[in-house]
Specification:
The complex is a heterodimer.
Chain A (H helix, E strand, L loop, with lengths): L4 E3 L2 E4 L5 E6 L6 E8 L3 E9 L2 E4 L8 E5 L5 E5 L8 E8 L9 E2 L3 E5 L1
Parallel strand pairs in A: 2-11
Antiparallel strand pairs in A: 1-3, 3-8, 4-5, 4-9, 5-6, 7-8, 9-10, 9-11
Chain B lengths: L8 E5 L4 E6 L8 E7 L6 E6 L4 E2 L4 E4 L5 E6 L8 E8 L14 E6 L1
Parallel strand pairs in B: 1-9
Antiparallel strand pairs in B: 2-7, 3-4, 3-8, 5-6, 6-7, 8-9
The chains are: A mainly beta, B mainly beta.
Chain lengths: 115, 112
């Protein structure tokens, strides 16, 4: 079946511009996560959605970062006034979150480059 | 947060078994041990997880020490496609059962 998809696969933007990154989770998965991976920091958690609500936003690095999820499905991560340190691969994952089935399925990521 | 320690890198030859160790001496009684791997230019992928007993699935086996302070991921016959970074992760309800906290992992190199 279809896995987690993310768009765009690559995004180059100028410093100070806003960007939106999209994640389409596996159909029926109630949980959705955003992570990012950069050379200096490794893989780090950003935010977690259960349905449309976000019980854990502890990883968002600043108030320039926000995310929403609609219809218990698609999620959008928005970065306002991008900075060079925002350059990273942004990964989305989804999970069924049923007993014994907590594994997370990751998308291919969006590579963001801020120039 | 309970942390894990893994070697930075390991090497193997194709079709040989690979044993990837992970130390987690501060593991709590409710922590599950999860393994993920990340192939080049891809997102991480789930491999296996366990609590106390050894586990087997189509990808690998997980051997957990009796005191649970260490575990070993076993790839029975390495292939070139198994070259990846392998992450050993503890999932604890105390930190939010849902998120994964990645360390630096072990980079596995597989030679033909």
């Amino acid at each position: 079946g279809a896995g987690v998809s993310q768009s765009p696969s690559n995004k180059v933007t100028e410093k100070g511009k806003d960007v939106e990154l999209r994640c389409d989770p596996i159909s029926g998965h109630t949980a959705l996560y955003w992570y990012r991976q950069s050379l200096g920091q490794g893989l780090e958690f950003l935010i977690y959605f259960q349905g449309n609500s976000a019980p854990d936003k502890s990883g968002l690095p600043s108030d320039r970062f926000s995310a929403e999820r609609t219809g218990g499905s698609v999620s959008t991560l928005t970065i306002q006034r991008t900075q060079q340190e925002d350059s990273a691969v942004y990964l989305c994952a989804s999970s069924l979150e049923l007993a014994g089935q907590y594994e997370q399925y990751f998308g291919p990521g969006t590579r963001l480059t801020v120039t | 947060d309970a942390k894990t320690t893994q070697p930075n890198s390991m090497e193997s030859n194709e079709e040989e078994p690979v044993h990837l160790p992970c130390n987690h001496s501060t593991i709590s009684g409710t922590d599950y041990i999860h393994w993920y791997r990340q192939l080049p230019s891809q997102g991480p992928e789930y491999v296996i997880h366990g609590l106390t007993s050894n586990v087997n699935n189509r990808m690998a086996s997980l051997a957990i020490a009796e005191d649970r302070k260490s575990s070993t991921l076993i790839l029975h016959r390495a292939t070139l496609r198994d070259a990846a970074v392998y992450y050993c992760i503890l999932r604890s309800p105390n930190t939010g059962f849902q998120k994964l906290v990645f360390g630096t992992g072990t980079r596995l190199l597989v030679s033909p």
